[in-house]
Amino acid sequence: MTVIEKMHKHHPQMTETDKKIYMYILNNRTLFSLQPIADVAKKLSISTTSLMRFAKFIGFSGYAAFKKQLQLEEILHSSAGDRLQSLRDSQYSHSSQSMYRLERESLKGVLSQMNLREFELAVEAICTATDIFCVGLRENALSAQTIAYRLQSIGLPVGFSPSSFKDVDDCFLSHAEGKVLILFDQYPYSRRMRDLCQDCQEKKGKIILVTDYPTCPHVAFSDFSFFAPSKTDYLLNSLLSTMFFINLLFSEVIDKTKDEVIPLLTERDERRKNSGEYLL
């Protein structure tokens, strides 16, 4: 049952405040999916408690779960252009202050949804891999390239960061045992990415998935899954929390491999100094 269907179902039992929230969401779905709870409360002249109570009233565990589900449904049923048009029509200004609040919440979401034991095992898989492939298409290409460059900079065996489906297909033509696939994908999820996960799994490779929703179909084929909320900007595809996760992952990898990394970095810094290419 969708959020809208749940609201319709509970409409007869709604208070006047509930009906005000209900009508606001119906008429401003995209806007509501971006607004912090305090902004919605101010707009409707109600308390934030009323909004949290409304979420539970229609059957959610809390306001965060309610809003996350509505965001997902909004993405499923509208294009980026439709969402931006809706925001323009409502004359909504996504201020830097509200963006800050949303992004801060998304960073908290990375940590609150992270299984620390799973994180440790993912780091161990990276540190012991024979080959590492970092894959992300469209806006996720930046995430893949960032982690690939960082891991390569400390001497880990990064094959390459694919930028096309053909490159992705070439990753696992032979057996994948000992190989690690670090995959970044946000909605709309790629069917080819799912096929790649399946192929890697069948060939005994390890898959580390970073995605924006636990409902991502790649989760079923992944050894380790981590969630980085992305629905915080106008187009609902922010990469801030993904980059935050990359920083956490990279820092932990360095900590686990520091005995090997220290001489490598020392040699690299000496080489740079002697080359005269850098301003040191």
Characterization of this structure:
By secondary structure, the chain is α/β, with parallel strands linked by helices. The protein has 2 domains: 3-91, Orthogonal Bundle (Arc Repressor Mutant, subunit A); 112-261, Glucose-6-phosphate isomerase like protein, domain 1 (Rossmann fold, 3-Layer(aba) Sandwich). The protein has helices at 3-10, 16-27, 29-34, 37-44, 48-57, 63-76, 80-89, 96-112, 116-127, 141-153, 165-170, 191-202, 240-275, and strands at 131-135, 179-185, 206-211, 224-227. A 4-stranded parallel beta sheet has the order 1-2-3-4, with helices on both faces. Strand 2 (179-185), helix 12 (191-202) and strand 3 form a beta-alpha-beta unit.
